[in-house]
Write a structure and sequence with these properties.
11 helices
Amino acid sequence: MRETEFDGKGSRIRWTETPGEEPARVYVHGLGAMSSVYHAHIAARPELAGRRSLFVDLPGHGTSDRPQDFGYTLDDHAGALAAALDAAGVSGAELVAHSMGGSVAVVLAHRRPELVSRLVLAEANLDAFPPPAAGSSVIASHEEDDFVNGAHARVLDSVGPQWAATMRLADPRALHRSAVGLRRGSEPVMRTLLEGLDIDRVYLQGEYSGELAGHRALETTGVRVVTVPGAGHNVMFDNPDAFAAAVAGRA
């Protein structure tokens, strides 16, 4: 495990990595998750072997620190991720990012284009104010102190065991602020940033999640939108073959 400071106050963002050839692949998890749990089984597949791979836990999640005075906006998370890549000596990386992590990856690619050469986004949030049933909306519907002091436990009981297993490791206040930041989105919004990037971009949408809104407009800007059969939001678990193929550039 490696670490570096991300907020100027001593808080540390942490990641694990496997050695291999460059450019590195950097795996970024979603809200309430952690990267190794969601992506290590993908990086280990034969078609992806031999590439340097980093599994980064965003602030407030997994093994990273959880400062109580940090904002946990998409910009804040992107800045912390940039600090990790700078400390790791990574540039021109392929970012493989899920859900909120995809939003963070898009913001990072816009802010620090030298760090990112390719994006593989799995059901990334592209728009502000997702539907009320979305996990981020459910969390953000509570006031912060109410969430920390009771609603967090109720949310853990209501989500599936897979998500709860990693969500319980995230700091409740960081989780709430991350959800609020994700719901607010970036400025300009993530979809606009993604459309304007001049790099290889792949967007994976699970078949069970329905058609991706605005996918034709994305495709006109060069984003390759792939519907993954037999998959919902967690594409890497539901159809790892298709997920790995997309990361390998074969989808």
